[in-house]
Amino acid sequence: MEVKAIKKLKLFGFNNLTKTLSFNMYDICYAKTPQHHQEYISYIDEEYNAERLTSILTQVASMIGASILNIARQDYEPQGASVTMLIAEGKMSGNSGDETSSFTRTEAVVGHLDKSHITVHTYPESHPDKGISTFRADIDVSTCGEISPLKALDYLINSFNSDIVIADYRVRGFTRDVNGKKFYIDHKINSIQNYIPKETRELYQMIDVNVYQENIFHTKMILKEFDLDNYLFGTAKRDLLPGEKKKIKQQLKKEMAEIFYGKNIPKV
Questions:
Q1: How far is CA 200 from CA 155, 156, 160, 229, in A?
Q2: Tag placement on the chain: N or C end, fewer CB within 10 Å?
Q3: Percent of the chain with pLDDT strictly greater than 70
Q4: Domain count across the chain
Q5: What average pLDDT does the structure give for the chain?
Q6: Of the candidates 25, 26, 75, 83, which has an alpha carbon nearest to the alpha carbon of residue 49?
């Protein structure tokens, strides 16, 4: 999606604004037996291992117009993975983009290290006795200068097959024009939803909580359609008794609602 600029600013020095897009993305499923649960964890660890996550973040860097300075990645035991990628605005000569990249290529690189980065951490977990398993991926895309993390918004949502997305976007700091006037934002936005294509928005129920005067934007998304088959791992809906289907659907919907609203829902 195109990020709409307010106007082309003539700046004194360079653009000091820091733009940070943070996600929590959730995939929820029901694994009926301990074996199914372990198979689900193994599947998630394979599907979203550090190598695959690095590939996703590399695509994000390309989409927002950033150069990769350094990559650190780790697969954890017994489960989960992390990737941290340092980036800089624009293309840089001699940049290889691999784990051995130097932190000190140029003075310009050093100036960007504390502000521009992409990170992802994954958290597979499960309910102790009810068969519910939840996979969470936390992603932060923080940039300085003219590049914007909003360009990668839809790609990230779809890369993780997200049932629930909780996203925050904040613009911090200020930059000055040649006359010394401060600017606290350099593009138009009144909602994160502005940067999500219509076909994606139509799939989700969405809620905004925005603090416009502080350039803080918050959007929560949960899939509208619920097909039990899409939430079962190792078991097909046709193999369940009617009473089991109802119970599992209630458990899944409760789990999703609690995550979406950020609070525990008491039993009726």
A1: 10, 12, 13, 21
A2: C
A3: 85
A4: 1
A5: 85
A6: 75
* pLDDT given at position 99: 42
Q: What confidence score (pLDDT) does residue 9 get?
A: 65
Determine, yes or no, domain membership for 180: yes
* Active-site annotation holder among 22, 121, 191, 218: 121
Residues 6+ apart with CB under 8 A from 68: 58, 61, 85, 86, 87, 95, 97, 101
Does residue 122 lie in a domain region?
Answer: yes
Residues of the domain holding 241: 18-261
121 is catalytic: yes
CATH number of the domain within which 127 lies: 3.60.90.10
Q: CA geometry: angle at 143 spanning 141 and 148, to 5°?
A: 85
Question: What does the H/E/C string look like for 39-67?
Answer: HHHHHHHHHCCHHHHHHHHHHHHHHHCEE
**37 flagged as catalytic:** no
Catalytic residue among 112, 144, 159, 162: 144
Does the annotation mark 29 as catalytic?
A: no
pTM of the model: 0.84
Q: Which of 116, 133, 142, 162 is catalytic?
A: 116
- For the segment 156-205, what is each residue's pLDDT rounded down to a tens digit? 999 988 999 999 999 998 888 888 898 888 888 999 999 999 999 999 99
* 13, part of any domain: no
In a domain, 10, yes or no: no
pLDDT at 254: 93
Provide the CB-side half-sphere exposure for 155 (13 A, CA).
Answer: 16
54-109 per-position pLDDT tens digit: 999 999 999 999 999 999 999 998 889 999 999 987 765 554 444 433 333 434 44
- Rounded distance between C-alpha atoms, residue 79 and residue 137, angstroms: 13
Quick one: which H or E segment has residue 136? Answer: strand 132-144
Nearest alpha-carbon partner for 133 in 45, 70, 265, 6: 45
